[in-house]
Amino acid sequence: NAGVTQTPKFQVLKTGQSMTLQCAQDMNHNSMYWYRQDPGMGLRLIYYSASEGTTDKGEVPNGYNVSRLNKREFSLRLESAAPSQTSVYFCASSVGTPAYEQYFGPGTRLTVT
Amino acid sequence: AQKVTQAQTEISVVEKEDVTLDCVYETRDTTYYLFWYKQPPSGELVFLIRRNSFDEQNEISGRYSWNFQKSTSSFNFTITASQVVDSAVYFCALSELTYGNNRLAFGKGNQVVVIP
Questions:
Q1: Using CA atoms, how far apart are residues A95 and B2, in angstroms rounded to an integer?
Q2: How many whole angstroms from its chain centre is CA B48?
Q3: I want to staple A46 with a disulfide (CB 3.0 to 4.6 A). Which of A34, A38, A95, B24 is the partner?
Q4: Residues of A20-58 as b/e, b for ≥16 C-beta within 10 angstroms?
């Protein structure tokens, strides 16, 4: 039982490049989330998917898009990376929202130069 | 306005001392949920506890205990007899049933450093 997995673990991009962060969970959870963590800022929600087939913006959605591919997978895309998107990205999942605890993946450390 | 405030950014303690982390939250909801997460140096966030707004019983799990007081909007976390393995960042978080837009609002975290 792997829980929540994320790929890649590390990535370096040049400004303007695009990339997709992948996330998968094997806990049969309905809800999935993408956060970014910056020093001194805690975790901020980028996008979430309350259930398969739905996605909604979080606190900091600008510059990102998401796809809930199926119940297991939720990807985050940066279309044109900017240095301000240098951060650690976490994917999480939960049984549902908003009452249930979230389980987090190991994170992706992204640097945009 | 910040919904979850963790005022102490970094706390250093000597091993075997107790350490208490303060969490103050703000909500208009009558039904809400509070959480604590641990982020060790490896980076992954680990769920520790969930408490709903109707359950004010304190909870103890091993060396960890939590004190929930609705009257002061606080959900404090105490580590008793701290160990080096407790060195981590600890996050308090709030989820509101009505006004939360399905979001978990995190505090900025408490960095705990346990000195051997």
A1: 26
A2: 9
A3: A34
A4: ebbbbbeeebbbbbbbbbeeeebbbbbbbbbeeeebeeb
Bridge partners of A6, per DSSP, are A23
CB contact under 8 Å between A40 and B108, yes or no, is yes
Closest approach of chain B CAs to the CA of A41, in angstroms? Answer: 6
Region at B16 (left for phi over 0; alpha for psi -120 to 50; beta for the rest) = left
Sign of the CA dihedral B63, B51, B1, A31? Answer: positive
CA distances from A65 to B41, B79, B100 (A): 29, 40, 22
List pLDDT tens digits, range A97-106.
778 899 999 9
Q: Sorting pLDDT into bands at 50, 70 and 90, what band is B1? A: low
Query: Chain A residue with minimal CA distance to B4?
Result: A42
Name the minimum distance, in Å, from the CA of A91 to any CA of chain B: 10
- pLDDT at position B100 is 64
Which residue of B lies nearest to A55 if distances are taken between CA atoms?
B102
Higher pLDDT pick, B5 / B96: B5
Whether residue B52 and residue A100 make contact (CB cut-off 8 A), yes or no, is no
Interatomic CA distance for residues A61 and A85, integer angstroms: 11
Q: Which residue from B47, B102, B109 is facing A101, i.e. has the nearest CB? A: B47
- A to B CB pairs, distance under 8 Å: 57
